[in-house]
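Exercise 7. Given the components listed, write out the predicted structure of the assembled complex. Treat all entries as one system.
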Amino acid sequence: GNSVTQMEGPVTLSEEAFLTINCTYTATGYPSLFWYVQYPGEGLQLLLKATKADDKGSNKGFEATYRKETTSFHLEKGSVQVSDSAVYFCALASGSARQLTFGSGTQLTVLP
Amino acid sequence: DAGVTQSPTHLIKTRGQHVTLRCSPISGHKSVSWYQQVLGQGPQFIFQYYEKEERGRGNFPDRFSARQFPNYSSELNVNALLLGDSALYLCASSLALSKPSTDTQYFGPGTRLTVL
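Answer.
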């Protein structure tokens, strides 16, 4: 079956530090890959997406590249801000139903 | 345009009761999915509906059921509530299912269900 493995948190960084959150996946077929972000007490917001190998998704300074050879979709940001503090979820959609399979989430805290 | 809306925001029930959660998708979206998110975990897939038909079901007991209406809104029903059903229930909508360009799911704010 499909699965997503995320780097365990929590992760604590100082403002302007470099961020990497690792994500690897197992899937049949050709999955789309996503990063979602969840702020306290809220639902999930789509952060970025990639639909095929070597695609790079980017949004708000965050980037992730679809690496089929390593089955990875690591999230990066060059300079984090306090407002980036949230839980980040890696997910994939595959098969005819395109249902989402999520990782366990990574809590990020950015200190001023 | 309004995003995905869900009601109610919060709900408190006791064991054995029944609950109905509601979801309205983004205008023009024909697919609705439901997810359960237990505190500290990633969301787990419950159901997916497209054009009023069930297209996917996760590993949940028969106490969970759902339906989609002609206007594409959806209801999730849970019978005989257990303490373990306490969670954030998320609804997501997407344009369609058939291809990666249309399968992005957009989430509502969720309904927080507490079972006492």
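Discussion: Chain B has a mean pLDDT of 93. Chain B touches chain A at residues 4, 33, 35, 40-45, 48, 55-56, 58, 90, 92, 94, 97-98, 100-101, 103-110 (CB under 8 Å).
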